[in-house]
Amino acid sequence: METKLSGEERLILLQVARQAIAEAVRGSPAAPLDLQSLPSTLSQPGASFVTLTIDGELRGCIGALEAYQPLVVDVREHAIGAALQDYRFPPIDPSELDELEIEISRLTSPQPLRYNTPDELIAKLRPGIDGVILRDGLHRATFLPQVWEKLPDPVVFLDHLCAKMGASPNMWRYKPLQVYIYQVEEFHEESEQQ
To answer: Most CB contacts within 10 A, which of 13, 22, 120, 128?
Structure first.
């Protein structure tokens, strides 16, 4: 990560995400963003994932792997997407807004991870540090580094990631895949308000 966001910048992003979700869930148009009034770091291109949970259970997660728009716009767009467009869950209902916990992950640029054998791939992964992207032709899937908390074994992690990509869970063992790694700066409302 080039430079970490300040506490103020993190709070701004969390507030933007919270407001965007509330407006979208209630069917209101998004308030315009005044990029000129924000810290310049938030106007720079950035890639993010927004993860929504209720009582520790996943409720939505949407993001981008590559920076293509200002970070604050990226966060707002993915907050709305996580609330309304994650195909795994019904859209967030207004009654859930008070229970919703927001986590933002700011991503570094993905870097290719070169390997020759499945054992070498396992050895090169850094559980808890690396987010992983698997790509096979037009199919791809990613797990943020936070997923290591639930799937700490690299073999199980890769099996689940292949399944998420729509492939057989053990595909990584017999077919060379394109593998990319990235790191995140992760923060959520509870930790930033203390």
So the answer is: 13
39 with 72, same domain? yes
pLDDT digits (tens, 9 = 90+) for 86-145: 998 999 999 999 999 999 999 999 999 999 999 999 999 999 999 999 999 999 999 999
Q: Where are the alpha helices (DSSP H) in the chain?
A: 7-25, 40-43, 71-84, 118-124, 154-165, 171-174, 189-192
Domain end (from 107, 122, 153): 107
Q: Is the CB of residue 182 less than 8 Å from the CB of residue 130?
A: yes
Tokens of 125: 């992964």
CA angle (184 as vertex; 117, 136 as ends), nearest 5 = 35
Alpha helices, H only, 85-188:
118-124, 154-165, 171-174
How much is the pTM? 0.89
The answer on 97 and 56 residing in a single domain is yes
For residue 177, tell me if it sits in a domain. Answer: yes
Question: Are 168 and 98 within one domain?
Answer: no
Confidence of residue 19 (pLDDT cuts 50, 70, 90): very high
Q: Is 192 a member of any domain?
A: no
Return d(Cα 40, Cα 113) in angstroms, integer: 32
Read off the pLDDT of residues 149-192 as tens digits, 9 standing for 90 and up. Answer: 999 999 999 999 999 999 999 999 999 999 999 999 999 987 55
